[in-house]
Predict the structure.
Amino acid sequence: MALTQGHNNRGPRVGEDVWDLRDFIPRTSRQKFVHLTGATGDLERRTMKEYLYARLRVPVGRLAKPIKVTWLAEEGRNFLRTMQTLAAIGVPRLQDLRKEHLDSFLTHVRPFGPNTVENQIITLKAIAVLGDHLSGDRLEFVPWPYRSARQISGLQQGEENTTARIPEQIMRPFLTGVVFYVESAAQDVIAARRELARIDATAVPRSGQGEARRKFEQFIAERRAQGRGIPALPLERHARRPGASVIDGVVQAPNLSMVELLTQVRSAYHLLPLLKDAGRELGYEEGGLPFSRADWPPTGRPWRPEFSRSTLEAETSYVRTACWAAIAYLSGMRDAEVRDLRRDCARVETAADGRLRYKIHGRVYKDRKVTGEEADWVVLDLVHRAVEVLLEIDDDPTHLFGYTAPHGSLGLMMHIPQRLNDFRDHLNELFRDEEGPFVPAPAVTGTDGPDPQDEDATAARDTETPPAEPMAWRFDTLQFRRTLAWHIATQPFGMVAGTRQYKHASFAIFEGYAGTSASGFADEVEAEKATAKLDYVEDLYHDWNEGGQSAGGATQRIEAEFDRIRAELGDLPGTAASPERLRTMLRHLSRTLHPGVLNDCFHQPATAVCEKRFRGLGRPLPMLNMCLTCPNSHRSSVHLPRLRQTRDSAADELGDARGLPAHQQSAMSHFTATLDSLIDELRKTTRPETP
């Protein structure tokens, strides 16, 4: 097969009951083995093998192409689940299935949810299509030949991205912690690891008679003089001293191995009682390795207590997580793309305008062949610093996130969602203050209650609504890509949003994001723009429906459309229109909308003033003076404070322009007068502002 070309490994054979795919799929793949031992009986196992082999070679379904080998294990599980369902309804073999069994099949599988229904129907249809490739057992007909699996399952596929976007009040402190770890904490961890490696490499001579006790007594005396406690046993090793109490997270038992390391003494177990006596007198403290630690800016104190061996290893893991978050969030890369990065992935290029472009070179796997496709991402210099940190702490010869595990074999960073949530908890442990956790917990309602965003459900729900409770935000890998796309696409729908979110970043990074077409990220940004525009139009509708007024050439056309929608929905005072229907009816307006800071444009090329004067640009170009009289312009109350701020800034500039030529002063005066006219127009139509 083509799968094994270029590999020394011959690959798995059909006769084997466990197919080992590790040499033929990316290291980031979670499912590296296909287990065929779950089949009940030789006939089912043989059919399963033939089916999976055919799925790799024969196009099936709407995509009309074979599956990738990375999906083979999941396809095997779907086959086994489908066969289990058939057995449960009294059909032990495929050839025994009849059309009258299909209703029982659906009745049995529907309690598991629409996704399970869809997956098993897709599998059943694929088994039917591949009947010519099955020698022992096969379906004799195609189930539901004129209906798709999605139609039967009832699974609803929304047009908008359902991945949760990380709220700004969560992302801001989390990203602050990520940046601190990459830029400061990582340097402490690297220095401590180097020093500890040096100490471990130093040969420790066996102490003479009484020499070990003398060194221990000297160490205790120094701790007493410094007002410090004895290094405590790490909390994760408390099980070794089950009788020891724990006070404020510190185990009240000495860390003998740490004291041996600090005093350069070997095999001093006989001196443990001496340390226990000193601990009762001086108390205990975390860590013990006297390595420097950076200050946490808000407090001016070291960001964590001293290191021990175990806490240093734990902090190394947190540094890896922070580097993953920095690379993923500031590039828009998917999890598999991040963890598959090679050690030479960081590149710096000089653009035509002379600015440096920091890039990450990797591979895109989604909708590509198994080996992926090369791609570049434009990133911030912080991402390159994260790469430099990983090069220091990880030792895999090929992969940036690969490292030697404690048992000695090379591993690859896995279980990213759990690591992200552990890192959030660790930030709260380190940097919590009197105001609460460092990464706040948003208030959410109980899962058994109705969706608070569903107005229809809200109107019908009982008065005993589950109270809102603060719960920690659950991170997953998809949220970072979606959140970045949202920030780029939203308010005011372009690069300005990125500059606002990352005040330390240059414009170039957001230009680069829009150009990463190979990874599909540009398409996600466009999808977020479409959603953001629809949100904006919905806000305009609600403002108009509540009595807000607007101005501009497109006002009459837009308000007439709003009036038609309100009449059709019955969206009157005292009633609640369906949010889904409202968004569906407003969607066509969002397709022509070009939001602006001082003016919105519901663009129609036939009447647009800018189209007539700037045809050479090949795109809409809303301009203030043109929009004043353009039939496509629209201004609402949201623009009023921006217009005032712009007018005030222009007036200040005009006040300092006495030395300018007369024609420049005239142009500035005309600009200020134009802004005044726009403000007056909205004042006449907008309800009085509350003081």
Q: What stands out?
A: The first strand starts at residue 18 and ends at 20. Residues 370 and 421 are 30 Å apart (CA to CA). The chain has a mean pLDDT of 80. The chain has 24 helices and 19 strands.
